[in-house]
C-alpha cells in the first residue's frame, strides 16, 4: 500500500535494544585512546577497510539503536536513545507535541525518543547530558563512520556545555575560529 | 565584533518596562489576500502589544509569515514573525531572518514546527535541517555576533528580539523547564507557552523555570485562549498535539447549557489570564483565538490587561504612538549601515 511506503519515508522513533547501563559500559570500552586513534587512521587509509568497518558499525548500531548513520553520534549524550530516529530529528530534546502518555506526535503508536532518552539518562545518573547544547549536524558526514570520527577527535565540538541560562556558547567552530 | 542594536519594538519596550504584555495571533490567509490580514490586524490594533504571524501553522500552506508580518506592520500592529524549521534548511532560515531584519520586523519567534504528516501536504519532504534550539542559537549568532553560521561577518546585523516556545505540559515534565533554559542559553529573550488550562501544573513548571534562573534572562508569556464550543473542546483534547485540557475544565464547559458554552469559555479564559498573571515570573499572556480575533478586545478588557488597560491607555490606542524609545530605536536599527 502506498501509505505504508510513505511511513518509511520519515525516521521512526526507536526504542534502544541495549539497556542504558550496558551502553554506558560499552562506551567506556570504546573511549578515545591512542591505539583506537591509530586504528582509525589505519582503517581510513584503506577505502575498502573503511567501507567494511562502516558497514559493520551500521549493522550493530541499526539493530541496537535504530541508527540513521548521521556520522556524528549523539548517543553518549542522549541516554543511548538515537535522536536521529525522531521524525523531526531533533538533537536538543523533545518537541512540544509529545502526548500526555509520552507518545510521538508524528507516530502516535510509538514512544517519543526523547522521553526514552530522558528516562534512560536519568536512571543512569547522566540526566544532565540532556542540558548540553547540541550543534547542528554536518550533513556531509551522513553515511560515514561516527566511531572513526570519534576516535580521531573530529566530533569534539558536537555539543557545548551550559551551566546557566546566561551562558552564550559559540554556535559553530568556524564562527569561534573567525572571531578569535 | 559588530554587534546589533538592542531589540527595538513595542513588545521589547513593554517587557523592558516591566509592564504586563499581551500578544495575540494572526494566521495568514490560504490565498494571496492582503486585505484579510489588514482586517484581522484592525481587530487587534490598540488591544495587544504585538501579534504573532504564524508560519504555515498546522503544516498547512498559507501566505508566508515574512510577508504576513510586513502586512501586519503596515496595518498598524507590531508583528512577531514565526519561523519554523520544517520548510527551510539553514541557508533559507538565515536568509529569512536577515530579510526580517531588513524589513524592520521587530520580533521573531523560532520553532521546530509541526511535522507535515498531518498537514495538507503529507507528501512533502520535511526539512528539519536545524531544530528549534539550534535555530534560536543561529539567530543570536546573526544578531549579537554579527555573523552567519559560517563565521562570515554581517556588516549590518539584524536587530529583532528573539522569541521561542515551550510546552510546560508535555512529557518529560521534569525536563520542560530545562529545555527552556537551553533555548535561553541559545539566545531566547522571550518565550510563549502552549495553552495553559491547568494553573497548578503551570505554576509548578514556573517554579522550575525560576529556580533555573531563566526568568532573569527571558520573559515568560503564558499562552491562553477561549474554548468556545464542545466541538473545539474535543478538538483541543484530542486533535492538537501537546495541548492538555484537565478534567475540571471539561466538566465546567460540559456543565453549562449548550448556548452558554461560548460565554463560559470566554469567562474561563479571562479567569486564566488573571490567574497566570499572579504566578511569579509571568510577564504577559499570549491570547490564541483562531477565527475569533474580534473577541480578543473583550477578553483582554475584562481581564484588565494590555495597552488599553495601562495608565497611558489613550496614547497607546493610537498605532503611531508607540513608546518613543521603541520607535527611535527601531529607526536607528533599520536605518543602520
Write up what this structure looks like:
The complex is a heterodimer of chains A (180) and B (337). A two-stranded antiparallel ribbon of chain A has the order 1-2. With 180 residues, chain A is mainly alpha-helical. Chain A has one domain. Helices cover 39% and strands 2% of the residues of chain A. Chain A is built from seven helices and two strands. The N and C termini of chain A lie far apart (55 Å). In chain B, strands 1-2-3-4-5-6-7-8 form an eight-stranded parallel barrel, surrounded by seven helices. With 337 residues, chain B is α/β, with parallel strands linked by helices. In chain B, 55% of the residues are buried. About 3% of the residues of chain B have low confidence. Chain B has one domain: TIM Barrel (Alpha-Beta Barrel), CATH 3.20.20.220. In chain B, 42% of the residues lie in helices and 13% in strands. Chain B has 13 helices and eight strands. Chains A and B meet through helix 5, strand 1 and helix 7 of A and helix 5 and helix 6 of B.
Keywords:
heterodimer; A: 180 residues; mainly alpha; two-stranded antiparallel sheet; 2 strands; disordered N terminus; B: 337 residues; alpha/beta; TIM Barrel; 8-stranded parallel barrel
Assign an overall shape of chain B.
Answer: globular
Q: Give the overall shape of chain A, derived from the CA principal axes.
A: globular
User: What structural class do helix, strand and pairing data of chain B support?
Assistant: alpha/beta
Mean of pLDDT of chain B: 92
Query: In percent, how helical is the residue content of chain A?
Result: 25-40%
SS summary, helix count of chain B: 13
Number of domains of chain A: 1
Figure out the total of helices of chain A: 7
N→C terminal distance of chain B: 15 Å
Relative strand content of chain A: under 5%
Radius of gyration of chain A: 17 Å
pLDDT < 50 runs, ≥5 residues of chain B:
314-323
The strand order across the widest sheet of chain A is 1-2
Largest sheet of chain B: 8 strands, parallel, barrel
Structural class of chain A: mainly alpha
